[in-house]
Write a structure and sequence with these properties.
This protein is 9% helix and 29% strand. It is mainly beta.
């Protein structure tokens, strides 16, 4: 069964569906489920391995040796990555690493400096 979200206006848990609308009986706010999922995707928060929120332009450090796919190279633990850019997808950090070039990293393998 679909778990209905709380009302975005008053946070009431008693929301219900009426066709393609979600309605809050306490404050009469109406919204669509598509709007709800778009807001969540738009406000996606990316966190590092320690739970710190990452932003575009941050500097991070690699916390684990990472094998580079298609190469025999390894990105060593402690490698500093400057000026990251957050992107959608499984690998949510787009960056440029000295001596390696453009890379995509997972946020779970870095920590904010």
């Amino acid at each position: 069964m679909l778990e209905l979200p709380n009302c975005p206006k008053c946070q009431s848990a008693y929301t219900y569906e009426d066709g393609n609308l979600l309605i809050c009986p306490e404050c009469a706010h109406e919204w669509t489920l598509e709007l709800e999922t778009e807001d969540r995707a738009e406000n996606k928060i990316v966190k590092d391995a320690n739970g710190n929120v990452l932003n575009d332009g941050d500097t991070v450090t690699v916390i684990k040796d990472l094998k580079v796919k298609g190469s025999s190279s390894v990105i060593k633990i402690g490698t500093k990555v400057k000026n990251i850019r957050l992107v959608d997808g499984d690998h949510d950090i787009d960056c440029k690493i000295d001596d390696f070039g453009a890379m995509k990293l997972k946020s779970e393998f870095v920590k904010k400096v």
